[in-house]
Amino acid sequence: MTSDRKGNSSRSTSKAGRSLITRRGLVKGLGAAAGAAAASGLLPGPMRYIQAQAAEPIRLGFQVHRTGIGAAYGRWYEQTTNAAVKTINAAGGINGRPIEIVAEDDGTDPKRGAEVVEKFATKHKVDAVFGTLFSHVVMGSAPTAGQLKMPYFVVSEGHHVASGALNRYTFQPGITDVRSQVISMAPWIASNLGRKVAMIYPDYAFGYDHRDFFSAAIQGQGGAITALIPVAPTETTYSKYFAQIPAETEVLYHVMVGPGVLTFVKEMGDHFGSSRPQIFGFIDSLEATDLASPGLEFLDGTYFWEAFPRYAQKDQSEFDKHYRAAVGVDDNGASTADPKEVSTYSHMFGCWETLYVIKAAMEKSGYQKSTFAQKGKLIEAVEAMTAFPESDEHPQGDKTFNGKLHQCYGHQFISKVEGGRLNVVHKTAIEDGLYEPETDYTKKAL
C-alpha cells in the first residue's frame, strides 16, 4: 500500500509537473508572440489595452482654464480631454503606453500660464503640454515652452502661431486660426448681409486678430468698416458700446468671450429691438449659453460662425455621432447628464483632435522617452504631417496642415438662428481660408 501510495503520489506529482511546465511554456510562448505582434503593430485590441495598462505612461501636461474668464471653456476642454484619453487608452494608448493627464489650472492668466508650463517641465517632467485657449495666455506661456524645449500644442484659434510670433516648439494642429476663419466667410457676409460693417471685439490679441483680418477681408470684398469698438475683458455692461455704432452700419459683427456673454447679447437686443442692422456673430458670444435663455428671442434670424455646429444637422456624420456620445453631449449640444449645461461645442473638439495628432506624431517618430532627441523627432514628425481626414479622430471634418506654419486649416460653418436653434446655411471650403505663409518654423533650430 505504501508502495502504491508512493507510486500514485509519484504519478500525481509528475502529472502536476507536466501541467505546470505546459502552463509556463504557454505563457512564455504567448509573451514571445505578443512581443512580435507589438513590434509589427498587429496586437489585437484587448492585448493592446493590457499592454498599455502595464507600461509606463505617456505624461501629458494639460494647461486648463479652470478659473478666470476662460472657466466655461476650461470645464468642457477638460471633459473632452478626459473622454479622448479614455478612448485612446482603451484602444492601446500610444506606442503601447497609456496616456496620463497631469492637469494644472492657469487661471486664464498669462503670467500664471508661464509658471504652469515651467512646472510641467521641471516638476511633473511631462512629455508634452497642450490645451491653452485664450490668446493672451498663449502669448504669455509659449516663450517658456520654447525656452524649456517642451512641445506645446495650443487649442486657441489665435493667429499667433501661424504669424511666426512664437517658436518651433509651439503648434496649433487641431483647430483653425482666426485669420483663416474670417477670410473664408467674408465673401458670404458681403454678398448676403451687407458691406458696411461695425465690429465689436475683445480688447486683447484674439480680438485684434478679428479686427485686423476681417477689416482687410471685407475691404477686399468692396466693403468698409464703419466702426471698430474694443471691449475690455473685465467689462460687465455693454450698452455704451452699442451706442457707438454709426447709423449707416449694415452689419454688426460681434465676438465676445467670458462670463459676460449672456449679458452682452441681451443688452444688444435691448439696444436695437426690432430696428437693427444685420447681425453676424462669432459663436464665442454664445458659447456655453442656452439659446432658449430669456432675452435672446431677438437673435432669431441672425447669423453665427461655428467651427463645429452645436446642433446636430440633418446630414450629421457618423463621426459626429461617435464624438458626441464619447464626450457626453446630446443633439442640442448640451450635457447628456444635464440639458441645462450647454457645451462649448465649437471649440472643445480641438482638444480631442489635438490629442490624436500628438498620438499620431509619437507613433510616427517612435517616441519613448522624454529626452531632447526624442522631442526633436516628435517636432519633426508633426511638421511632416500634411492632412487629417474626417474620421472618429477628426470629427469636425477633414483638414490640411502646414508644417512650416504649425497651423491646420479646415471648414467653417455659417449658421442661422431659427426657432431657438442654429441651422447651417453655408459651409466654406478649406481653400477659402488659405493665405500666404508668413514664416517657416522648420528653419528655426530645435
Automatic annotation (TrEMBL):
Lineage, please?
Bacteria, Pseudomonadati, Pseudomonadota, Alphaproteobacteria, Rhodospirillales
Give the UniProt family note: Belongs to the leucine-binding protein family.
- Ranges for the Leucine-binding protein domain? 57-417
Listed name of the protein: Branched-chain amino acid ABC transporter substrate-binding protein
Q: What Gene Ontology biological process does one annotation of this record name?
A: amino acid transport
The cross-references to SUPFAM superfamilies, in alphabetical order and at most eight, read: Periplasmic binding protein-like I (SSF53822)
Q: Which UniProt keywords apply?
A: Amino-acid transport, Signal, Transport
Name of one Pfam family that matches: Peripla_BP_6
| InterPro entries found in the cross-reference section | BCAA_transport, Leu-bd, Peripla_BP_I, TAT_signal, TAT_signal_bac_arc
Record keyword Transport present: yes
